[in-house]
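Practice record 12: protein with adenosine-5'-triphosphate.
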Amino acid sequence: MTSVPLLEVHGLHAYYGQSHVLQGIDLVLGREPLAVLGRNGMGKTTLCLALTGLLPSVRGSVRLAGHQLIGQPPHRIAALGVGYVPQGRRIFPSLTVEEHLRLVPRRGTSTGDAWTPERIYALFPRLAERRRQPAGTLSGGEQQMLAIARALLTNPQLLIMDEPSEGLAPVIVEHLIATLRHLVIGGLAILLVEQRLAVATALAQRIAIMVSGRIALETTSDMLLADPALQQRYLGVSAQRAA
Ligand SMILES: Nc1ncnc2c1ncn2[C@@H]1O[C@H](COP(=O)(O)OP(=O)(O)OP(=O)(O)O)[C@@H](O)[C@H]1O
Ligand SMILES: [Mg+2]
């Protein structure tokens, strides 16, 4: 007997006006993290926008635990359990940490272990220390924590993250990966979009590589890390830069 996958994407197409960007994406995601890797402009952010209802011009099928998401507005998709951490974090510089957390529409969970600001502050003590500071005064790493915190407060089943490591120093990225692993152990499904091979492979064993709006290859971290020619072909990175 097969259970319904958490996320099932089939034949997903997306457009910006006449520009046909996603050209038939198929993906299945269970509880195991999946990383989508791809160079600049391959359609990774467009995929995130299509999955979260933020792009009006889409067709195909996206099911979350069997519920069709295509055609649903973003707030409904969030309420069904999809959390989103956008590329570039999108925080409000003049609002404090506390105000950001208070602004998130809350959703109950069936399991009872809902995220609260208190749980967020326990996960990210730096945010607790800075709760009354305007978010614009936070470091890049702290702003990323805040973006993740905001998504967690919607109590997602699935967290979609768009290049969370972008612009962060290596030591901060290590901390980010440790946090994401902790969330995975806690039962959260993660779809991680990345350009950095090392970040993707540190979190996910399952890797999908995007080229020009399509999934060109599904592979594993181990296979990709062991194959510099494959990295070069799909990601244009040398083995050294990938480290
Ligand atoms: N608002 C838009 N209007 C028209 N074309 C767009 C728009 N946003 C993105 N595109 C185009 O769609 C394609 C995919 O862009 P997308 O932002 O999804 O790529 P990406 O993989 O996220 O890139 P990056 O790694 O730089 O974030 C690109 O060719 C881009 O120029
Ligand atoms: Mg992008």
